Amino acid sequence: MKRRLLVAVPLLLLVVVLAWMFRPRHDSQGAAYVSDRNVTLWSSLAQVRQPVATLHYGEKVDVITRRNENVNVRTAAGQTGWVDGGRLVEPALWQRSVELLMRARSMPVQARGRTKVSTNLRVEPGRTQKRLIQFSRGVPVDVVGRAVADWVQTPEEKDSSGETQETKKEDWFLIRGAAAGFSGEAPARGSEAASVSEFSDSPVPVAGWVVARFIELDLPDPVREGTAAAGVRTLAWFELNRVSNPSGDKPQYLVAGVHGAEGQPCDFTTFRVYTWDARHSQYQTAFIDNNLCGQLPIRVGKGPKGEPEFRFFLMDKKEERVFHLVQTVVRRVHENETNAVKKKPAPAAKPPAMTKPAAG
Q: What pLDDT, on a 0 to 100 scale, did the predictor assign at position 350?
């Protein structure tokens, strides 16, 4: 009996040691962030598998292991499973997306629209740049900037807009949108990789670069009709003000665009102002400038007398052009006039009133 115990105990210890050495390891290989609206966490890679959970955009996971294009991850709640590695981004790229969002949020909106097709948001202009998220068709977006990139057809992103591509360069829009985001607690400021959730509750705001022609701008009817008749491809539009009309107040518009194909060095080469003609109950083109190379953003505000004002720089950034809309007349404000307004001296203070000395 003792001899059997002397043999069994070492064997049992050996089995325990081997089981510990070859146990499934769950040490993290680093963090990653979910880069799609909804990602299924699967129990295994087998054909017969079960969904464990649904992960959302911005959710942080720990990477356990990788197998080809699939990644085994652990969530903040301790759930483990497999996801498509293409739906995750590394912390460095995630941090770039946060910085891009902060930049885009400080820029004035140049136009509003929605996606015409499934559209990839990328960290830089260009189809070979890293993808941040994919928007489905019909997602509302704000356009805040424009750039030009070389056109490269990639297997990942097919041009499904139904339009032929004949140019070697294409326009890209910097846009802001929203994704169904992670509602968990955001990390503290200054952490290694801040979460977009830090900036807003769900849905989470996102920003990125998209192919410009994949966005359909929500143009007001007067702008759409006027630019179509003039052969202008609209890139930005604004409501300058509203004027009284018996049937209801009518907005007056500024629109900027280009003639011709994509990939032009100027953000816009023409702008037009559409005002309401109350006498004939129709819109008219109050002003046209076709001889410029303008740069976005266009900034719209109020002049010194409360009149609508818009301003922009030419592409060389050396000259700013300022315009005022006075009723239905557009007037360019030259630099000397702008400086005169800025340097207008304050009225002199009145001398104190003289008082008679009190009687002694």
A: 53
